[in-house]
Queue: 4 jobs
Job 1
Amino acid sequence: MRRGFAAALVTLALLLAGCAPGPEQPAPSPTEATDPPADLPAADDAVTALVAALNARDVSKLPMVRNPADAQAEFETVFAGMDEIYPTVERTAITYEDPDGALATLTMTYQLGKDGWTYDSTARLRHIEGVWRVDWSPQLLHPQLTSDSRLRHTTEEARRGPINDNTGLALVEQRSLYEVGIDKGAVIEADQATAAADLATLLQVDVAAFQKKVAANGPKAFVIAATLRQEDIPSTVVDIPGSHVREITAVVGPTDSFAAPLLGTVGHPTQEMIDKSDGALTPADIVGLSGLQSRYDEQLRGVPSVRVDVVGRKAAAGASAAPFDAFPVFQQDASIGTGIQLSLDRDLQAKAEEVLSTQTGLATLVVVDVATGGILAAAQSPSGGTFPYATYGKYAPGSTFKAVTALAMLRGGVTPTSTVKCPSSLKVGSHTFGNYSGYPSSALGSVTLTDAFKYSCNTAFAGSSVSGDQLHAAAGSLGVGTDYDAGFTSYFGTVQPGNAIDLAASKIGQGQVTMSPLGMAAVAASVGSGKTTIPWLVKDKQAASTAAPLTAAEATALQSMMTATVDSGTGKSLKGIMTGAKTGTAEWGKAGAQQTHAWMIAYNSTYAVSAFVEVGDSGGTTAAPLIVSLFS
């Protein structure tokens, strides 16, 4: 008996081994075939319709064995917790079962995580009354689903990488903030308006608006009045009935406005960003929206934790849900984002912002490390908002651009002591150029190039023989006039003069030539360092100059003229603070209602700086005081 039973087992094992599928090419079972039985049509069209319906998320119109409305309801239940994430469905194979069945293998592909999620499921069809009908079951959507379960998507953002200052300390990082508001469930209705008014007054927010907001929310809502740093929460907030403080996580800098145009912001992606991400982003994600946070978002954001679990369904009204142990079917672990290192000096940036805080219009300060070319500060006045005017604004640079024209003249054989002509007016074509009001009459006529530079003679530079190509080349050697990808939002100016009038105007920083405050800081840094300098902000993202380098002899000549400007020219107010400088004004606006940009660029052994005031008087009286305040 035992030997016979053992022999039967061996025989059964051999039979099973003989029909087992191979490792690479599964074979159909004896009851399945890849072609339909002779008396049945192929199920291809029915499977194609099923795939199209699944991709359209509407299976209610398909021929089914049972009620298609129930199938549609189950489809919606299964995906209700998937945050609008659905698979793309494709058919891969069809096999047939005797006497009237077909099995379609469906490949489900989700845009989830870094690499996506793909699996196969099986759809069963039956040929009934001359029609292939879907024999619906939840396993069609995922093999491990049952009539008691559904899918649930959850995600948790990785800890965002920091943006560090030039000492390696975090300027912007993920920190705790606190939402302060009224918990309506903790205060009686009659006292809610008073509590809202008291909290709004304490936090210095609009009282009427907050009272209206509290009244409009549900009876147990937590209504936020303000989001604060811990040190900014008044201790007396606990004395207000219904007040509540809730901790949240946010990506913040030293202050809300600190270097905001450079650093940028984070938040939920826009619909446009989601559409362009090919499924990589969802409305729940946190991403960089502007500035460096946007440019380096992938690096800073890291990889979020993404899970899809099979969980129990909610019970119908009046019923209790059966116990269900949830389990994961897809999981991507989080990885912390990688930070970036900046050249920015925390204290100098804060000081520059403080200096500009009282400016009523737009003004900027850009400071560059003369030795390294790193941007130490790039600040702008409050009216600039978060647009990066300091690094990306486009303005006529006025007479500060004479440093570029002077270099082109030096390359043409002129020296700082050479005699140049400085007439009171100069006619070029139909346009007459003159000097600024208050230009010293003693510096008219035949003067040295240094005198023309330090007193800022327009006619001497506009009337020079420098060509457009020579002007562009000189600009390149001083770090401007060429579009570089410097690793942040930056503009290094455009030097492309057109006709003779435009060329003459460009030589004195008017006409079609435009520069950013960053670009003019690059000119000052190039002169001060004695080499072509393209300022950088993000470590290891420095742009390389494509222009002819500034030579030592050229730098020495330019330094002598900029030093003379501080010693006895229009930059005298910077004496003792800066070694060399150049003032500038530029007219802009409609004819008859023109206003004046005021500029000052300067350098010493440590810093190169540009100061710009959009609507000012002159470089010496409007822009220079900003530099004095910054370094005093």
Job 2
Amino acid sequence: MKPYFLPLLLPLSHVAIADNQNDDAIETLTTTASRTEALATPLPLTISTLSEAQLNSIAPTHVEESLQRIAGANVQRGNGQEYLPALRSPVLSGAAACGGILTLEDGIPLRAAGFCNINELFEAHSEMAKRIEVLKGPGSALYGSNAVHGVINVITPDTTQGGGLLGLDYGSYGYARYKLRAGKDYGNSGIGINASVTDDTGYRDDESVKQQKVNIRHRFERSNLLLTSGLTYTDLDQQTAGFITGFESYKNEDIAQQNFDPDAFRKARSFRAWSNAQWQLKNGNVFSITPYVRDQSMDFFKHFLPGTPLETNSQTGFGVQSLYQHNLQSNIKVNLGLDGEYTRSDFTQSQNEPTQGSAFLVATVPQGKHYDYDVNATLYAPFASIDWQLNKWFISAGLRYEHMQYDYTNNMLTGRTKDDGSECSFGGCRYSRPASGKNSFSNTSPKLGVSYKVNNNNTVYANFSRGYRAPQAAELYQLQRDQTTANLNPEIANNAELGLKGYYSDVSYALAVYAMSKHNTIYRDSDFFNVNNGSSRHRGIELEVDYALSKTLNLQFAGTHAKHTYTNNQLVSGLNINGNEVDTAPRNIANLDLNWQAFNNLALALQWHSVSSYYTDPENLHSYEGHDILSLRAKWQVTNKLEVLARVINLTDEAYAERADFTSFTGDRYFPGKPRNAMLSATYTW
């Protein structure tokens, strides 16, 4: 079954859901759309939410399993907790492609703006989140750099209100997860903990994941002040299985299970702490300020590069977010804010053993240290917006100015020599180190949105917004071959969107049509230079619907039809890719959940997830055929406090690839998907 643009439907907890017995709707609140609590329905934008109940029913082993249910999202798993993301975009890859989507936990970016990591969502506690909100389309007018294609915000539970949870997940291939949630409410204050421990020996040879995550929350209330503080610590110790190579090698069970990079690993630690103070002022005005600190480090064996070097990186910093909401009139609200951040980062890449391979690779990829540098980065960003409710019209306009500066120090010899200063043959060494210096970037990001309440149940909207991201430190300072400096400008995306959302009888829906154009796209060209002249066009349509077929049967379907094309003249293998489809960008992605409340205490769900074919190279000469995966879940409410969940993923034991890729060096390569696997979960709450 291939969804060649069927009606594309999605489980929508953010859409007003009709009560069968009356015309009133259950309104859902969002914090991601405006950085403060607001009703989602009248806002002139698309934001999807996965609720705590949905997340508990999914019991995800990886954040990708949750985001399958978001129209427009396409997260491709690598190995372990690794992944490559897409949100109204092709799958983003490369040293700094992570700058295309901003990821948050409790509204605070997981990484500093110039130092993102493509896998950074494994540092959020998505496995035990209260909800996950996904803002689609540029969010730079509110969040600044990196919010080009959208924002993913993992919101942790308020454990200070008391109650608790004990849980155990046990599954195929040595998977186990232990979960704890507990808190104590003292009235005007409270404290709580949210923790999980994961141990997964994995499907493939010599792979494993050991991961621990903990959130601690504190609350204090007094008069007109609410003070909420949080802390997140994560630790990942992963033995990684890399790509397998050969056309459709994922269909060979013996090859798919092998690990051809048994020495590969990733060790990552992250610590974040924040405290939000919110004052209720006169006339309903509100002022809030959120200082925060981050400390992160990672050791990463680059099994996909010649010589398999070791990367070590870390970043330490602090920042503040502020927001003042002023009710100018009863129907006009003005929002003013100032964000600031300071980050100190260091990066080294070194190779312990001689390179294996051709004479060229052996000569140009030397043993020893490749990069060693520090970067001190500062960012400040004032922003303002206005929301105006005029009868059935709702108008929202905003503007953010952002300035970022890097102060870069090279701790090695400048240029493309070996670490001892000697030259490489074949024209020089692969890695080039620019001289110490400073780079700064400034940008203004506007937005304008208008919605109209057609009737009590339905709203039509339009918005125009600009996404922005500054060049990442990796793009500026990890150069190759003859490049000595990278003269890069920020990437810009201009987006227009038209939508309709609401409910009718037993159906809730949200339709969105968008058109985005990106320019100043940064990529590495055929000379191995980081350049800034890429451009692309992104067009798509999403229809999200939740349909109650009966009192016991519910249909939820998530999907998108989109086309992403190159619009710049660039020769790749002698072919001009202008007009080609961007690689790793399936046109159709769909997810169907059919939920049946069989008895009062027993529910069943059948899931169908479909990914259509896509090209795996810019020349559009190689492709992956796509896949369809069926899964089954059952939930048994044993008592009011005890719940048991069983699931079988890949019910038909389909041979498929989580990710397919093609390079001129390796040919076709894949991350194979898991064969049929099962998990049993038990959760006790109080």
Job 3
Amino acid sequence: MWILFIFALIGITSCINVVDPSINSTSYGFEVDYENNQFLLDGKPFQYVSGSFHYFRTPRAYWRDRLRKMRAGGLNAVSTYVEWNLHQPQPNIWKWTDEEDVVAFLKIAQEEDLYVLLRPGPYICAERDAGGLPPWLLTLVPDIKLRTNDTRYLSYVETYLNTLLEQVEPMLRGNGGPVIMVQVENEYGSFHACDTAYKERLRDIISAHVGTKALLYTTDGSTESALKCGKIPGVYATIDFGASSDPVATFPVMRKFEPSGPLVNSEYYSGWLTHWGEVFQRVPIYRVTKNLKTMLAMNASVNIYMFYGGTNFGFTAGANGGENEFSPDITSYDYDAPLTEAGDPTDKYFAIRDIIAQFLPMPNIPLPTVKPKGDYGSVFLAPIAKFLDKDILKEMSVTAGTYDEPPTFELLSLGHGYVLYETDFPTGVNDPAVFKATVNDRALVYVDDYLVGTLSRTLKIKTLIIQNPYAKRISVLVENQGHLNFGNLAEDWKGMWKATIDGKKINNWNVTSFSLDNIQPLDKYTTINYANENLINGPVFLRAFVNIEGEPLDTYIDPTGWGKGIIYINGNNIGRYWPTVGPQVTLYVPSVWLKTGENEIIIFETEYIPANRKMKFVTTPKLG
């Protein structure tokens, strides 16, 4: 392993926060000591063992609990992304309070004795919709080039970063706050553009707020090509790699770009992400701890990704792929992390703690235990409304209009949800007729309100045979399963285009969009008669109630036997379910979204209702 220190002797001078030997040890600051290959915190040698926890993946009421468990596990820092789309969901709307109060999160981290590695983006990946970029960027500038020096894109980026960092400045370490490092972009070396002007502009925007009060850094994969495009002059370059990589063989790649200074693994993967239709991804404990110990023995600083994963509630999950591949992410972001989706410690948690204890002093904090879960039994879900009924369409819609060409979700200013495209059949179609269209991402196709098939970006299905020459109307309900969060196709439009019947272009579409953010219009609807198990006449809303005695507990709802849809608990969208595809079956329900007494459950089911119409609350998750 001593080859690493040979690289450190290469005489290349960096311009990043070079340490003044006369520094006052009582002053606040975080910087690089190149001579001794280490960080200095407030003038003293410092090695961090951090864990990733994204504040937007659990209710605010749990922030302190998760952070305290991280500190009890031996960590001395926490890494978090800041999600642009969360804080600016529309061009003229900003959210910085309540669940979006990132400054409050930073303050709690400091109160829990944790330093912070802040990753403001603008692009974050994180298996989040569009990698955290607001989909409305595609609306305002249809030919925009994201993550490049496109001035139209950068103007919005600058507004976002300035707005965020003005709030964060008091929390920088140089001002006595917990933020010791601020990342510039994210894994940019894995993006095709390799735009030097863009990288340097982001550096300058962020540096104008941070200065020398925290350390600017980049994170890239552990390949020379990634670092070559990801490295930014004046910004400390770090790498990421998982437990299957040997640190001794991997860190020399970083040394080619940072010949001296501390070794850093900014994303050491404790688990891995999972897509719908895959086996749930797991990483063995022994592999995680073995290489963690090796890195700490090398005096490397490490951020464990994820230490607590949490949940992609609502429509926030993204997808991976590109032009020819598409794999949407599951709702759970458990990630096989040391703390489960519900924040419970695992064997991996204690094994990692044991390794950290060999290198860092342990805090005097009680160790966490697994919390009890609520077993609230089965609930019977009664159908209350048919989605394709005209009254429901009108009440639940965001926009409606007539278009010659089918518009995308983004042109309808719809970042997530569903769009219904309807038109009359042209005359003189064949029997059978061939309907063909490109959809991003999944579409249910109805002829005269009768389901005739599914189009799928994942399965590359673009064609359906229609065997009704006398049909009058075709309806296509397209679901956005998440904008791409990683890869070279940043401009990931949603919707339907190139629609033809028997090769003839179809015009004059009635188009209705649905964000399904607000389900209050359903309050006035009561039980209806509905016999179909296969939903051949369109999706259905269903309702149930569960009574909880005493203080509510975290729980899981199990939709085994159902088709595909969304679950709301007391108005909170807890995410997508798809048990027939898996691997995730249950959805996590935080206790803070429950209440003593009556709780309402609303289901939006798009494909299949089992005969018993029941879902069950269980105490154990089914993720794989």
Job 4
Amino acid sequence: MGRHVISLAGNPNVGKSTVFNQLTGLKQHTGNWPGKTVGLAEGIADFKGKSYCLVDLPGTYSLSSNSEEEEVAQAFIESDRSEATVCVCDATSLERSLNLVLQIMQASDKVVVCVNLIDEARRKGIHIDIEKLQYLLGVPVVATAARQNEGLDDLMAALSKIDSGTLKMNPYMKEALVSLQENPEENKLALLDRASAIANDVVEITDEYYNRRDRNLDKILTQKSTGIPIMILLLIMVFWLTIQGANAPSDALATFFAIIGDYLNQFARIIQMPEWLRGALIDGIYNVLSTVISVMLPPMAIFFPLFTLLEDFGYLPRVAFNLDKYFARAGACGKQALTMCMGFGCNAAGIVGTRIINSPREKLIAIVTNNFVPCNGRFPILISIITMFFVGSSVSLGGSFLSAILLAATVILGVLTTFWISQLLSKTILKGVPSSFTLELPPYRKPQVGSVIVRSIFDRTLFVLWRAILVAAPAGLVIWMLANITIGDYSLLTRVTDVIDPFARLMGLDGTILMAFILGLLANEIVIPIMVMGYLSKSTLFEFESLDQFKNLLLNNGWTWLTAVNMILFTIYHWPCSTTLLTIYKETKSSKWTWISFLVPTLMGVSVCMLTTFLAHSFNLV
């Protein structure tokens, strides 16, 4: 007999992924449910000589098919592939979880209920009568504390009853639930009532102030007077830690790749590799790949864990709560705040995150505007320009903190633009009334630092880096060809730069800068190296050893404070990278909306830069 396939379902923030990770360890991979784009994590759990394939379904509050996550969860649970379902509940909020349990019991007669976070419940003075809950539900119920590995063997023992055929629901409960399905509207209300009645019957709260700490924190983090300032301060701190921490590792990686590059060139000469092939492979593909890795990896390895720690702590839903009213005024969905935060790490990840938005109209608004928050690939551009022209090239703590403040101000400008463009879209091509949604504020929890680091490195940092590498490799070849194919005395890159220079001047830039952005469509990380290559008329990517050298090159090529300002503005307002555009097409399955997502920020960037340049010259500021 092959492995039994077990669905793992539950609300968000109930520790479902922790249960999954503890049971499967490193025996995991991610696949897609056929015909869907939502990734499903699959892992192998071994118990008493037998193996079980656990499928971690997207966190969902119901099986009402209001979102892609709910559709996937329901389809998988009801499919022939799933032999049983483990429904993970939150012991500190059992009533909310039981609504989903009852819906799953209507869809499948082989269900095991896992009451997780039982340790937190004990600390808060919440007692759950597990035996009585099992009697009332008519299915096996197991109490667990997955972080401490408590109760997981009992959970697997309950699942092992599949082999003996004894994992079945109480027939009377099954009959009662099936009868409710005849009227969908009455069914929904009846399930809520039943969930509430069962919870009241089995839960005893001995400390009525058990959630006082959470409420006190919420008074600070979600109040009008303190919520937004604290959010901005945390943003500055995250940026400061990222800037300060990434400098040395980025330099070390760049030096390492330079040494490897020298060895590769020596090897090419030893084997007498043709010069055109050596240039294409080493000066082109290798140099671009090494630049992307050295620029992206260190800040992502810092930013993503910090972001995940805030997520694990329970802060990100508070961000959505604080920004919900602003998105509502813009005719958008408050959940867009979460997808916007994902965009800080990678805009492509932010696009994928829009799956949590139920309304197709609001999902499109979130997709079109996600590019207005700068991603990890654009941070090096912003940091270097801000540092050189508005802070000074000092790498002191004070200098990096001022850079973080100005970077945060730049990001806030992007957020404000997101509100404005969202409102514009909701009143024009995406008209509609903003939908309401129930936003759960989960309890604050002590983050699992080790788990967070591993999860953020493997699930986010390396995933995003790999996608960037896949784009950067062909980009390196294209750039090398443009720089080395000549027409007369000038390279094709120089010819194109000269053609677009007049238009770029209207934007307060120049042809070299605009050409760097155009080629940066493939990967934002290579914009600055391409720009330097253009100014130096080199046929391969080049980087300076210090910001002072870089600034002198820019000043010698006509840069002023206005050029720097327009460079910052166009970095925020320009087309998404090719990886993000590809992700937009996969999510929307529409060329039209992919083009709109390209044109909206581009037209915004060109317009803002032209206006800034016009005003600066009108008032004789340059």
